[in-house]
Design goal:
Structural class: mainly beta
Oligomer: single chain
CATH architecture of the largest domain: 3 Solenoid
Shape: elongated
Number of strands: 45
Number of domains: 2
Strand order of the largest sheet: 11-14-17-20-23-26-29-32-37-42
Strand content: 35-45%
Distance between the termini: 95 Å
CATH class of the largest domain: Mainly Beta
Length: 488
């Protein structure tokens, strides 16, 4: 059959007409939803938990995911806060801050985000309080709920405060810091056991020249320096580094004593400038932890430091940067298993430094003593594990000693006399580096090989470890900050 021009026109009309009827028919069809009375939504959590919320300042936002795991789309009749407008919580759905929203659709095998925040009014009490509510979901006649729980706490708030005279921080409330908290010259800050110092982003603690800082934590109630956005029920949150600036102990004749202190998730743990004190040392760290810092754990310029029973762990830069000065580290653990790219070893020894203006200063490294300690990690240089680097300018004092240590390094060929009775390579050193447990593994070569003389001649009492376990009641002391006790 041969189509004429006239026939072609009629064919086009017929096809267009058929298409039009098909479109109208499809448009008139209703979309099929899952309307089963037994249908249930699924949720990423059955409870959204906030711990701890500082009153009046709100919290970071948490996300709740709502899943439709059926093969058909579903229509949620309503999503609402049970407490309505009087609730301390706020929810955000599709960019809208609401107390209630109706007729929400979720496609088959799809999900919906709901963001939750909470603000708790001050209650003028030192005791923590709990605020609860729930998000209600009505679907196909079924009512489901996700619980909301927040622990609230009044706090002392410091906004770029400068402390003068003798000031004491007590542990009845946390201290929340915005900007820099400054201890002025000739002033002293005493921090009682159990105090929580919580720093906002880009905030820190500065102790000026001739200022004094005494941190008096205990084994049962350590003093904790941390971010103000921590969430104890979210273990991943406490692994985020660089959440606040850190501690800056300025040069001069200041005195700084830390006992049972923990410094977590800052950019720099402690930075200490040039200081005049030599005996006693300017900085004492006793039973302390500095963990998960972006740049440095402990950064020094011609300082004097005494440290015992301390853990320095996980830094994107140096755990320990010693640039001139005098140092004594006994039964310390330096463990660097930084999970991202790391470009430096854990320990840096140097006899010079640059100031904040970039000017170079010669500074003898009078002594850097490491006794019964562990320096270990994952940094490789030329495909060789090493965690210690040395930079010595000629004609300037440069003295360091690793005495009875487990230390992974490649300095022996140049500084063999600086290592006495040390283990240079080992496996199975720590319990669980993925979860930051740097206690010793049952097969660790650091067990029972410590020198009792290093303990006996210590200025600080280190007969017990960082956890309060005796080092002198078995065959021999273990290296590092932790003594292993079998079958416990």
């Amino acid at each position: 059959m041969i189509l004429t021009k006239r026939h072609s026109k009629w064919l086009i009309v017929i096809l267009l007409t058929a298409s039009g009827f098909s479109f109208i028919f499809q448009s008139c069809q209703k979309e099929e939803f899952n309307t089963g009375s037994d249908f249930k939504l699924e949720f990423s959590n059955d409870t959204v938990i906030f711990d701890t919320v500082f009153t009046s300042i709100g919290t970071a936002t948490q996300a709740l995911m709502v899943y439709n795991n059926s093969d058909l789309p579903v229509k949620i009749a309503s999503v609402s806060l049970a407490g309505g407008s009087s609730s301390p919580y706020r929810i955000n759905i599709d960019g809208d801050a609401v107390f209630k929203q109706s007729d929400l659709e979720i496609a088959a095998k799809d999900s919906l985000y709901i963001f939750v925040k909470v603000t708790i009014d001050p209650n003028n009490t030192d005791e923590p309080l709990i605020r609860t509510d729930s998000i209600l979901f009505e679907t196909n006649g079924n009512l489901q709920e996700v619980k909301l729980v927040a622990w609230g706490q009044d706090a002392y708030f410091h906004n770029n405060d400068t402390l003068s005279g003798n000031v004491e921080f007590t542990n009845n409330k946390p201290h929340v810091i915005y900007g820099n908290l400054v201890v002025d010259s000739l002033s002293m800050l005493t921090v009682d056991e159990g105090v929580q110092l919580c720093f906002h982003k880009n905030s820190g603690l500065i102790v000026r020249n001739t200022g004094t800082l005494k941190v008096n934590g205990t084994l049962a109630s350590p003093v904790v320096f941390r971010s103000d956005t921590y969430v104890n029920f979210d273990p991943l949150h406490d692994t985020v580094p660089g959440m606040w600036n850190g501690l800056w102990l300025q040069g001069g004749s200041g005195k700084y004593d830390f006992t049972y202190a923990e410094i977590r998730n800052s950019d720099v743990g402690i930075m200490i400038d040039s200081c005049n004190a030599s005996s006693p040392p300017a900085l004492t760290l006793y039973n302390c932890k500095i963990r998960n810092t972006t740049s440095y754990g402990l950064y020094t310029q011609s300082a004097t430091i005494l440290a015992a029973n301390c853990e320095f762990s996980n830094s994107g830069g140096y755990l320990l940067c010693l640039q001139g000065g005098s140092y004594d580290f006994r039964h310390c653990t330096f463990a660097n298993y930084w999970q991202w790219l790391r470009k430096t070893p854990s320990v840096y020894l140097r006899n010079s430094y640059e100031d904040i203006l970039g000017r170079s200063h010669k500074s003898p490294l009078n002594t850097a003593y490491f006794g019964n300690s562990i320096v270990y990690g994952t940094y490789r240089e030329d495909d060789t594990l090493t965690e210690v680097i040395a930079y010595a300018e000629k004609g300037i004092g440069f003295n360091f000693t690793f005495d009875n240590c487990l230390v992974i390094n490649n300095l022996q060929k140049h500084y063999s006399s600086n290592f006495s009775n040390c283990i240079m390579k080992a496996d199975s050193v720590f319990m669980d580096t993925d979860h930051w447990n740097f206690e010793l593994d049952t097969l660790s070569p650091a067990l029972n090989i410590g020198s009792r003389n290093i303990i006996n001649f210590s200025v600080l009492n280190i007969t017990s470890d960082l956890n309060g376990i005796s080092r002198v009641s078995d065959t021999g002391p273990d290296l590092g900050a932790y003594e292993r006790v079998e079958n416990q």
